[in-house]
Amino acid sequence: MKNFEKVLDWKRALLVKGATVFSYTLLLALLSQIRIPLPFTPIPLTLQTFGVLLIGYYLGAKAGFFSILLYLLLGAAGLPFFSGVKGGFLVLSGPTGGYLLGFLAAVYLIGKAKETGLLQRPIYALLLGLMAHLLIYFFGVIWFVSGYYKFFTTSYTLREILTLTVFPFLPWDFIKSLLFAGFIISEKRWKEVFKK
């Protein structure tokens, strides 16, 4: 009987964990729809990366990684999870595909930082938020240049490529990193208030 109860408890815990992971996948899909298209680049401004930071913070490295992976798989399978209510493998293999894959590395970084206590200080939360965005840029630029961009032209300079893939997003992503650090501070203060 005790073994049966243990199995039942394990299944319940697994179900709750799975539902939590999926709920954050849906959150990322919703944040992906908040977008501002830019006329000079196929990459829009979105709230996706803010969602990635939150997922890493709340789910940790492993569960966060699986949540993002689920987002990518469901989006690639055709569900309208990607920016602009789009889905399908063509979106994942398009100009923004590298950024999407970079989410996996970024969420793992933030998750590990949370698990090791590095996000306790606001300045570290801000710096790690910025580092997560730099990781996403790295994957995005490599993908854009090697997989997508080469089909159109090879005559652009590195500065011009970065103007398409990184520079327009720096202020926006700095603000998101600031919001992330501020969110962590606010959450801690609310927890202290409720403890009293």
Describe this structure in words.
This protein has helices at 2-31, 48-76, 89-92, 97-115, 122-148, 158-165, 170-195; strands at 35-36, 45-46. It is mostly helical and 196 residues long. It has a single domain, classed as Arp2/3 complex 21 kDa subunit ARPC3, CATH 1.10.1760. The protein has a two-stranded antiparallel ribbon with strand order 1-2. Strand 1 (35-36) and strand 2 (45-46) form a beta hairpin. Helix 2 crosses helix 7 (170-195). The radius of gyration is 19 Å and the shape is globular.
Give a quick precis of the structure.
With 196 residues, the protein is mostly helical. 73% of the residues lie in helices and 2% in strands. The chain contains seven helices and two strands, in the order H-E-E-H-H-H-H-H-H.
Main sheet overview: 2 strands, antiparallel
CATH topology: Arp2/3 complex 21 kDa subunit ARPC3
| Strand content range | under 5%
Helical residues, percent? over 70%
Tertiary shape:
globular
Order of helices and strands: HEEHHHHHH
Number of domains: 1
Structural class: mainly alpha
Radius of gyration: 19 Å
Number of DSSP strand runs: 2
In whole angstroms, how far apart are the ends?
A: 41 Å
The name of the CATH architecture is Orthogonal Bundle
Please tag this protein with its features.
73% helix, mainly alpha, Arp2/3 complex 21 kDa subunit ARPC3, 2 strands, globular, two-stranded antiparallel ribbon, 196 residues, 2% strand
Secondary structure elements and their pairing?
Blueprint lengths: L1 H30 L3 E2 L8 E2 L1 H29 L12 H4 L4 H19 L6 H27 L9 H8 L4 H26 L1
Antiparallel strand pairs: 1-2
